[in-house]
């Protein structure tokens, strides 16, 4: 280990210093930092860090660690990235930490079972796309990219044992997921205790002033704060962001729950998905995803409460998000496409499918075209009036489709331009 990571032998209480005054600029930066957050610990400490940064001109070191467990990001992931970008725009040093070492342990946070660790090949494959996608939110030119294998690999067995001696089993068992699994008789592997320790050690190595994470990461972030004290560093503050609900408005956004909006999805798809959220949920999406100022959002909400159609506000949100991940031109085109669809029109970007076997029942054709997972689902969609051919509603479940070219539609967002032959 380097000298920077050597434990401090000075256990004397630090000398108290007079608090720095909080200028208007500091108070504004604090308000921006707190917008949409779940918790900021300790707020008074972070205010002093901001004040010291303003006085000395030295930017704060702000850390976000992500394990490359999957190659694609959705809007739920960007909630924390958005906050990181706001802090970056305030002039602070953002550190995008890729947990290539901790990924091999597997983060047990919020899980009821042991998560299988990733192989080195899986980690490297996923990590190649992470920063490219994160750069759709962050300013890549002002972002420091680090990998925690830089300091974790050199620890070795002796260093790992020394680090493990700094935390008791009783303190580890304060974690809700560990406690729940222990009570339920669900196995907890010893190596899982290493995860929060290694994440905390990252903060020591990077001399972090502030670490960000989701609400499910609070325990791990606090471990970093405590380890910094042990190593004689000023402890980091902690900022946790809420978990964004998905399109259903209930469960957190997740690909496995199919309620997500991927940041690399086509512009038209992204726009339509955003327009599908409820008028109530729209404001939470504004708070957690929009870069509009607090004053702008307050004005927009007042206009809606005063009678403005909430659909107009939702359009503004959808255009902002699509512009961020695609372009302003793509956002305008997506709006036109959405309006066209809402009038029963056919979008421009319909996938083309060539099928054979005519004549064929409508249910089997929908399944073969990939618009329904099964013929039973297709029959239900016909019953519900959700199936159209060239814009005309299909009501006969026994309908046989002859050879030809036509556009199939299921629901509001599923289309296929079919060339059907015998």
TrEMBL record:
One of its GO terms (cellular component) is cytosol. A motif ('HIGH' region) lies at residues 68-77. GO terms for molecular function: ATP binding; RNA binding; tyrosine-tRNA ligase activity. It catalyses: tRNA(Tyr) + L-tyrosine + ATP = L-tyrosyl-tRNA(Tyr) + AMP + diphosphate + H(+). SUPFAM superfamilies: Alpha-L RNA-binding motif, Nucleotidylyl transferase. Homodimer. InterPro entries: aa-tRNA-synth_I_CS, aa-tRNA-synth_Ic, Rossmann-like_a/b/a_fold, S4_RNA-bd, S4_RNA-bd_sf, Tyr-tRNA-ligase, Tyr-tRNA-ligase_bac-type, Tyr-tRNA-ligase_bac_2. ATP binds at residue 255. It is found in: Cytoplasm. The keyword Transferase does not apply. It holds the Pfam family tRNA-synt_1b. Its main location: cytoplasm. This is Tyrosine--tRNA ligase. A motif ('KMSKS' region) lies at residues 252-256. Residues 360-419 form the RNA-binding S4 domain. It comes from Massilia cavernae. The keyword Ligase applies. Catalyzes the attachment of tyrosine to tRNA(Tyr) in a two-step reaction: tyrosine is first activated by ATP to form Tyr-AMP and then transferred to the acceptor end of tRNA(Tyr). One of its GO terms (biological process) is tyrosyl-tRNA aminoacylation. PANTHER family: TYROSINE--TRNA LIGASE, TYROSYL-TRNA SYNTHETASE. Belongs to the class-I aminoacyl-tRNA synthetase family. TyrS type 2 subfamily.
